[in-house]
Design brief:
- With about 1000 residues, the chain is mainly alpha-helical.
- It contains 44 helices and eight strands.
- The strands form four sheets. It has a two-stranded antiparallel ribbon with strand order 1-2.
- Helix 33 runs parallel beside helix 35.
Length: about 1000
């Protein structure tokens, strides 16, 4: 044995960490600053004032300015401020603005201000920005661009399509024209060629191929325009317009309208920009050409530009067919602004009357839709929109006449499918009608529509287009209408579903809410069609849960159960049922009361498919967590507890070996939140009974079991607090039951590190409650698991070593073992001997400093164990200082263990020497020296010699450690020599101090 360790008595203040103490002049987390002198080589940009109050002033190039810069490299790179602060500081300049802000600033500086006294107008870009000049700019209607994608996605077809054009087979030859007469002659030839029927028809195109061809036409139009082929561009626009007269694939017509009008919009924009270019004029007093301002008047337009504009309208007026003539003129309608001030209103009303010549009601309503689209982007006038609505109502009956019915039968679509084709156009027109319209005027429109035969289509479009507050304030009236009208062409359930969606976001007046719900439920419950009922219930579930109490919600769920139970029809409506449950739970004002409803769990039992049931239960617990995470509400109702336990069991049973880590973590978090919410107050026995039941149900989740163990330990600690540490027979039996619960539950956990931590915590709680046998069992089990800890583990995708965990765990364990009394049947310091036996079985790195650090902490433990009075105790627990009373045999056992541990450290020193790890060897030598002079008797020759040798080793390799470290050890040794009460120890320390100073 290299060492002969004999523990000495010491004062408790010797345990203070003198070696870690040093004087600081500022908070360690405060940023350090340096002063930089600005010269020619430094940046010229201004640096913001530092926190210390130094101010900066401008000076000439010869002056010197100072700036406090952070040592952070990023701060230095940005002249003393972080990147975000630097960018924020630049917002005052145009270069510092983000692209959108810069564009807005440019528009603000170039666009003139147009004053408007119309109600609802608002400034688009602040006080100096352009004010609205048309209905669309009021931002009171959903833009067409937002509707475009939905229409293209909804109205599709698998039938073959055809397209008639002359511009997709390689284009036309381009002849050079030099004189005006040649140019006119060539254009006339182009028009003659068009009239003579050079167009070709492409058949059997799929929908995707058709869209590609339309895009090619779009490209051809732009290319022809850029090549100065205006007639060709016009011909393309005409041919595209003619495609809108084709209803051979009628279910695709709304999407075709979107694609074609996109091309017409581009054509109209090209013509308008061309005319603006030709309208450049020489401003009075200058020689430079000036472009027309945004708010130009016809008086500002040169005659040449007006003549060109009139020529365009003349060309379009010469188109023989009505439909292309209408569409092309509507496309360039904006160009009337070059001719006359009030031409828009006249042209819009004229075109409205011309559309009456279109015989097909579907083609006509989309032509009116395009007219309203264009007109609403040009003017505030709404007269033509009302006239279009009047015309629609006048011919509305033709949608359902015999000719149309035979036509849709030929297309093999239903009347409902045909009626839905009108909705995009009708919605847009009705939204235009509703802009800046009073409620009385809207009431008149509702009355007129209600009086029509089969008004369901009109009512659906009105509910989609009119303001939601208008609909909500008349909810009772609308329910009555929808319950009584003829719904041919649509379904009553579809109308009630839409009404329920509106009322969910905008509730009716308080006095109408219950009657609206009762009437609506009575109507769609008697539809006789389960599918329509579920579609309505899916929407009305949110309205019911948001605005009514538990009684109405329970009645609503009962209606759903009544419809779903016969013939297992619920198996066909899992999605609707899931949506209903999600809306009811997420909007519930009293989640606990909802879970206790008579019809809630029976509704949950309808989900027989495991995957659907799992999703529903997860959503319920998620909503419950969101609703209760920020309050102190607890659960103590057995019905609610059982309901949540049932849901938790479903989630727990879904976890298996194939469950992903994220899914497992989500489920565990939801269940753990539920467990922590259950609280029976002072009824600790019922609380423990709940934890016992939960353990039997939640056996697949480590996190849930860990939460249960923590909760039981907290229960035992609360019991001790209530009895103030003086257990009665009843409370003693209860805390033993808690300790037994933890001890038999921990082995069910898979992760070995979690088990070790829980064993240690449970042992500490058992020790606190004077359950010594249970505490010993927990500590022994924790120690025995050390060899099972894997060397490397994966944490968040990163592989990490577990050596740090082992070190932290053992330090925590040793601090607890100080006050754990020895079991008389096991011998002196049995648990420490077991620890020293199993620690080497863990696969440490060959040169790891963790094992030596552990042994150093063991020496600390043994030094404290040898003291007459331990630094801390637990009430009613007799620790080894009282149990042994510093018995010589006990102290001898401690000394022997100290010698053993010291020998292990010396062996590790030798291994480090052989591996040439000088820094680690020197540091270990200093650490061992400090342990020896603190807790060992230096009057023993072997220990004194060992101490001197350790010091000599450290001095020899002083270049690899911190320069002040040796001096700090000397200061600490001098302190120990001054405070030590034992004379022999004091003399040995002074002698050692002389030898140490002689080697520095």
């Amino acid at each position: 044995m290299s060492a002969e360790w004999v523990c000495v008595q010491r004062q408790q203040d010797e345990c203070r960490r003198y070696l870690d103490q040093f004087k600081v002049l500022d908070h360690p987390l405060k940023q350090s600053t340096i002063t930089v002198l600005e010269s020619r080589g430094t940046r010229s940009s201004k640096v913001p004032a530092a926190a210390n109050g130094i101010s900066h002033s401008s000076c000439n190039s010869a002056a010197v300015s100072t700036a406090a810069l952070s040592l952070d490299p990023l701060n230095i790179a940005f002249d003393g401020s972080d990147p975000l602060s630097q960018f924020a500081k630049q917002q005052g300049t145009s270069l510092g603005k983000d692209p959108l802000s810069r564009m807005a600033a440019e528009m603000e500086s170039t666009l003139p201000v147009v004053k408007s006294n119309l109600p609802g107008c608002r400034s688009l870009l602040g006080n100096k920005a352009k004010e609205p000049t048309s209905l669309l700019e009021l931002d009171l209607i959903e833009p067409w661009a937002a509707r475009r994608g939905a229409i293209l996605n909804k109205y599709t077809t698998s039938e073959k399509l055809s397209i008639v054009t002359s511009f997709l087979t390689g284009g036309e030859s381009i002849k050079p024209q030099t004189t005006m007469s040649e140019k006119v002659k060539y254009r006339l030839e182009q028009l003659d060629d068009f009239e003579e029927g050079s167009v070709r028809q492409m058949l059997d195109l799929s929908q995707q191929e058709y869209v590609v061809k339309i895009e090619q036409l779009n490209h051809e139009l732009v290319q022809a325009w850029n090549q100065d082929q205006r007639v060709k561009a016009l011909k393309i626009a005409i041919q595209c317009s003619k495609l809108l007269s084709d209803t051979s694939v009628i279910q695709f017509y709304p999407s075709k309208f979107v694609l074609i009008t996109d091309i017409l919009d581009i054509f109209g924009r090209l013509v308008y920009e061309r005319l603006r270019t030709k309208a450049d004029y020489v401003h009075a007093g200058t020689r430079e050409m000036t472009s027309l301002p945004e708010n130009f008047t016809p008086e500002m337009v040169p005659e040449s530009a007006k003549e060109t504009c009139q020529n365009w309208f003349y060309k379009i007026a010469s188109i023989r067919e009505l439909l292309p003539r209408l569409y092309v003129e509507m496309a360039i309608l904006r160009c009337y602004s070059f001719l006359a001030q009030d031409e828009f209103s006249l042209a819009l009303r004229r075109l409205t009357k011309m559309i009456r010549g279109i015989g097909d009601p579907l083609v006509a309503i989309y032509a009116r839709c395009y007219l309203c689209r264009v007109g609403m982007s040009l003017t505030f006038d709404r007269t033509y929109i009302s006239e279009n609505l009047d015309d629609i109502l006048m011919i509305y009956h033709t949608i359902f006449n015999g000719g149309i019915r035979s036509e849709i039968a030929r297309h093999r679509i239903t009347l409902n499918g045909y009626a839905s084709l009108y909705l995009p156009a009708l919605d847009w027109i009705l939204q235009g009608v509703a802009i800046l319209t009073t409620d009385n005027q809207l009431d008149d429109i509702v009355q007129r529509c209600k009086e029509k035969k089969n008004p369901a289509l009109l009512l659906q479009s009105m509910m989609q287009s009119f303001r939601s507050d208008f609909i909500a304030s008349r909810a009772t009236h609308f329910v009555q209408i929808l319950s009584t009208i003829s719904v041919e062409g649509l379904s009553r359930g579809q109308l009630f579903r839409l009404l329920g969606s509106i009322l969910s976001h905008t509730p009716p007046p308080m006095e109408q809410r219950l009657s609206v719900l009762s009437s609506a439920m009575k109507t769609f419950s008697s539809l006789g069609n389960v599918e329509e009922f579920m579609q309505c219930a899916e929407m009305w579930a949110q309205y019911t849960s948001q605005h009514f109490g538990l009684k109405e919600v329970d009645a609503f769920l009962g209606s759903v159960l009544q419809q779903m139970s016969p013939n297992r029809i619920y198996e066909q409506h899992y999605h609707e049922l899931q949506v209903i449950v999600d809306k009811i739970v997420s909007n519930a004002q009293d989640v606990h009361g909802l879970l206790a409803l008579d019809n809630f769990l029976p509704l949950l039992d309808l989900f027989q498919k495991d995957s659907i049931k799992l999703e529903v239960c997860k959503n319920i617990l998620t909503s419950y967590r969101n609703a209760t995470s920020c309050d102190s509400a607890i659960i103590n109702d057995p019905v609610v507890t059982n309901a949540l336990m049932y849901i938790s069991r479903v989630l727990n049973d879904s976890v298996n070996a194939l469950t992903g880590e994220d899914e497992r973590r989500q489920i565990s978090g939801l269940i753990c939140h539920f467990i922590r919410k259950v609280d029976y107050g002072r009824d600790f026995e019922q609380q423990l009974a709940f934890y016992v039941e939960a353990r039997s149900v939640l056996s697949n989740l480590d996190s849930a079991l860990s939460t249960l163990i923590h909760s039981v330990n907290r229960l035992a600690t609360s019991t001790r607090r209530i009895v103030k540490g003086l257990h009665t027979q009843k409370t003693a039996a209860f805390v033993k039951a808690c300790a037994a619960y933890c001890f038999i539950t921990i082995p069910s956990i898979i992760d070995v590190r979690t088990r070790m931590e829980l064993y240690l915590q449970s042992g500490q709680v058992a020790l606190l409650n004077v359950c010594l046998q249970h505490a010993d069992s927990c500590f022994e089990a924790a120690i025995s698991l050390i060899p099972e800890v894997p060397r490397m583990v994966e944490n968040d995708g990163k592989v990490q070593s577990t050596e740090g965990f082992i070190k932290t765990f053992i330090v925590n364990l040793l601090s607890t073992l100080v006050i754990v009394p020895d079991n008389p049947t096991q011998g002196v310091l049995y648990l420490l001997r077991l620890l020293l036996e199993v620690v080497p079985k863990y696969p440490f790195e060959p040169l790891s400093d963790v094992i030596s650090c552990i042994y150093l902490h063991v020496l600390d433990f043994l030094s404290v164990a040898a003291q007459e009075v331990y630094p801390y105790h637990i009430v009613n627990v007799i620790s080894n200082d009282e149990l042994y009373g510093s018995d010589p045999k006990f102290i001898a056992e401690i000394n022997e263990l100290c010698c053993t541990v010291c020998d292990k450290l010396l062996q590790h020193l030798k291994v480090l020497l052989e591996s040439n790890a000088l820094r680690a060897q020197t540091q270990l030598a200093l650490d061992l020296l400090l342990k020896i002079i603190t807790g060992a008797d230096l009057s023993v020759d072997k220990m004194f010699t060992l101490t001197v040798n350790l010091w000599n080793l450290a001095v020899k390799n002083r270049s690899v450690i911190e320069p002040k470290q040796l001096q700090t050890v000397v200061v600490y040794t001098e302190h120990l020599a001054q405070v030590t009460q034992l004379e022999t120890q004091r003399q040995s320390l002074w002698l050692l101090l002389e030898k140490m100073k002689s080697r520095i």
